[in-house]
Amino acid sequence: MSKKKKTDVVLKKSVVGQMAEKVKAEAAKAEEAKNTAKQTVKETEAAAEDASKKAEEAVKDAAETVKEAAENTAEAAKETAKEATDVDGNPMSEEISKALKDSFMEAYKKQTEGELEDELDDNVMILCENLVKIYKTKETEVLALQGLELRVEKGEFIAIIGSSGSGKSTFLNLLGGLDRPSAGKLYVDGKNLFKMTESQLVSYKQKTVGFVWQNNARNLLPYLTAIQNVELPMLFCEPKERHERALELLTLVGMAHKKDSKLNQLSGGEQQRIAIAIALANRPKLLLADEPTGSVDQKTSDAVLDVFRKLNSELGITIVIVTHDINLAKKVNRVVMMRDGKTSIERIMKEEFVKEQLHGFIEEDTHEEYAILDHAGRVQIPREMLDEIGVDSKKIRMTVDGDKIVITKA
After folding, report:
1. Where are the beta strands (DSSP E) in 20-164?
2. Furthest CA-CA distance within the chain
3. 224-251 pLDDT tens trace
4. Tens digits of per-residue pLDDT, 287-306?
């Protein structure tokens, strides 16, 4: 064999050898990939099995938690019946305590057993039945709401009145999502406030409800101008859209000319009107106001009331005002009086006053007064009426006279 042919054979063997090495290397990689895939499958199966076990444990834990919560609630109800106090901190009678316990347990049972159907009418903005709120401390329990019942239609403008400790502010906080109910039924704009998660509650406070506080320091930031304060809740909007919306709202409440003024350059009434504009920034369906005219004079009070009337009639916003101002309440179509954590009386404006824009001090009786029957047929009788007929005990006589129920002292 010639030297050239020998060289060719050697080269060919070398090439074949290199190819064989490559094939072996590729085969090794394929085997390694196969083994890795098998290991991944095993790990996935193990992870799935572990997740399944954890899910089963979570279900068991949840069931135990629900059971424990029910037992704790039952125990709390028993303790409430034993040690219940009224909103002034005074011990309650055994009769009232037992009635409250029954009311609390009935509401809790409905809540936990899923008997609260979403049967709401489309026209209902607020619906609460047998609503209970208990504030607990280490030493005592205060029953702020004791089975409150109320229905408010969309587009209504109502005032809630009552003495200090009657539960007005507590109820407003529940409607605003600032506090959680203890038991009962509470819907706002079709949303069940008992079933809301924390994230849903944040969305509710952002989009459904607006709040106007009595203390303007809670409404306005002193180092910002009026328009900057109104823009603040809309920070996630486009700057141009945010500015236009803020200017629109200031115009709506008659404060566009003060858009560049800061807190110390505004009167109390002007601050309150800007606070209303801030509350409307995210287009809420329900506007809540806590003593909006509590720190202003009569003329300014009328101006603030006119703003609320305008919002109610032009935008159709449902408005709920909590107030001690009886004169203000006389100018609102519907007034609900609370006593001892319950709605006791409703006053509906007489037809001849409905279309009037009442201002100033009102001496006339502008409303018809009605007592409220709850779902169990119970009614609260004002203490003044009982005193008038000389009732000084817990027993009275009731008789039916035609279409009247007559109450006399026992």
Report:
1. 124-136, 141-153, 157-161
2. 142
3. 999 999 998 888 788 889 899 999 999 9
4. 999 888 777 778 888 888 88
Report which secondary-structure segment, H or E, holds 11: helix 3-83
Mean residue pLDDT of the chain comes to: 78
Are 234 and 262 in contact by the 8 Å Cβ rule? The answer is no
Side-by-side strand order, sheet with 209-212: 209-212, 286-290, 318-322, 157-161, 334-339, 342-349, 367-371
Beta pairing class for 318-322 and 286-290: parallel
By the 10 Å C-beta count (0-12 exposed, 13-18 middle, 19+ buried), 380 is classed as middle
String of DSSP letters for 48-72: HHHHHHHHHHHHHHHHHHHHHHHHH
- pTM for this one? 0.67
pLDDT tens digits, residue range 148-197?
Answer: 889 999 999 999 998 888 888 899 999 999 998 988 899 999 999 988 88
Q: Select from 220, 177, 227, 172 the least CA-distant residue to 198.
A: 177
Classify strands 334-339 and 342-349 as parallel, antiparallel or unpaired.
antiparallel
